[in-house]
Structures are given as structure tokens and as C-alpha cells.
Amino acid sequence: MKLHLRCKWNAAAMLLAAILSAPLLANDNRLIAEYDRHIGPELAPYVALLEREDGIPSIIGFINESIPFNAPVILKIGAEDGPLFDPQTNEIWMPVEFLAEIDRRFTSANVVETQEELDDVVLDVVMHTLLHEVAHAIIAQFSIPTLGKEEDAADNLANVLLLEYVESGNYITLNAAEMFALEDEAVDTYESADFWDEHSLDIQRYYTTICHVYGAYPDEHAELVDEEKLSAERAETCLEEYATISYDWLRVLEQISN
Ligand SMILES: [Zn+2]
Questions:
Q1: Does residue 26 have a pLDDT over 60?
Q2: What spacing in Å lies between the alpha carbon of 145 and ligand 1's midpoint?
Q3: How many A from CA of 132 to the centre of ligand 1?
Q4: Which end of the chain is more exposed for a tag (fewer CB within 10 A), N or C?
């Protein structure tokens, strides 16, 4: 797994903010983080990680510069369930245990070498997850037609924002894909619930996500064309698939900003 630089997205976020309408920067309909003060001491290192400048402050800054909301959205860090978006309350729930789970999966898979790298990977997966939940929020708030599984549409928005506007967003997206692959590896046998779940299977989310990375950066990510990852035939279709989802999502963002 490649190490990558974080927190270089300000220029890209400003570019997106310039594309979107100026008024959204001036209104109060923003994502706001609230920490539950009853988070157990065993989770304190993860809270400290989230509170890092390149953690929640940067992620929320990017979201508020990139995404219009038509009501305030509260990000409840330390919620007892989730990650999820609740359309009744306009809350995104992010349990700190989710960070512990990311840590556990990457650590036991031996795919990271240093604590610094692990911390970055955890924040990458958190960022992708928050962008996914934000997609649910704007789909609900603006009644955006999804024409397919909303869960897939939410993954698509997370991928597009990272791949279009965040420096090293391709590596952040690949780390998010790796989390799906690791979740899939934990599955021994599929049950009916896996198939009727509103989400695509983790392994499908993995392949779709790396397909989008290839679609956005075919020259930089030729290594993804591999029979174990994307066949040459599938990789070819990823170019058009990614072009379509990025065009569609950016057009939607432009429309709801006006
Ligand atoms: Zn979702």
C-alpha cells in the first residue's frame, strides 16, 4: 500500500466552490460536528485522531466548501449506532468504534507498516464514509432522483468528490476500497440477508470503487488492470462509467447550489 500525503485539498475545494454558487458559502446550512463527551477512555486515541487538524476539521471544511445543504446537518461523533444518516433528524451518526474497526481490519491484514500510515488510512476511510453519508443527506434534503440503489449513488458521490477535488484522492479512494475488501474477507458464507441488504455486497463495492479510480486515473493506475482486479475488458468500460457518474453528480451539485 502506498503512503500518500494528506490535507492538500484546499486548492481543489476552492475550485469546486467556485464552480458551485457563492451563496452556499454564506448560509448557515452547514455540516456541524458534535462530540459525545461520554466516549469511553479506550476510544480516546481515536477521538484524538479525529480532532487532528487533518481529521474532522479538514474533512468538514472540505464538505462545507463542496456540498450545499438546505438545512443544518449535525455530525454526531460518538453515536451509538452507524455510520448512518437519519433523515428525520438531519443527523449523521459516526460511532468512534467504527474507527477501532477500521484499525482492527487493516492491522490484522498486515497491509500497513507504521502507526502514521495506519492513522492516515483510518482517516481516509472515515472521510469516504462521511462523504457517503453526506450524499444520503442531500438526496433526502433536495429530493434528488437516484434511479437505482441509493447506496450505490452515495458511494459514487464519495468517489467523485475524492477523485475530482482532493489531492491524492485516488489513494484515499483506494484505501476506502481496501476497507470493503477486508470486510468481504471476513465473510465466510453469504446469507440471504447479504443479498437483500440495501447495500451492494462489500466485494462489489470494492470492485466498483477501484473501477472508478481507474476510470478517473487510467494512466496512473494501470496496475488495477489485472485479472485479480479489473479485467482489461472491464477496465475499458470503467472509463465511460466514471465519466458518466462524475458528470451526473457534478451537474446535480451545480443544480442544487443554484
Ligand atoms: Zn449508505
A1: no
A2: 15
A3: 6
A4: C
Render pLDDT for 184-198 as a digit per residue (tens, 0 to 9).
999 999 999 999 999
Q: How much of the chain exceeds pLDDT 90, in percent?
A: 87
Cα dihedral across residues 55, 61, 62, 63: positive or negative: positive
Give tens-digit pLDDT for 219-243. Answer: 999 999 999 999 999 999 999 999 9
Distance, CA 130 to ligand 1 centroid (Å)? 10
Q: How far apart are the first and last CA of the chain?
A: 40
Residue 204, C-alpha cell as written in the block: 462489489
DSSP string, 193-256: HHHHSSSPPHHHHHHHHHHHHHHH-TTTTGGGBSTTSB-HHHHHHHHHHHHHHHHHHHHHHHHH
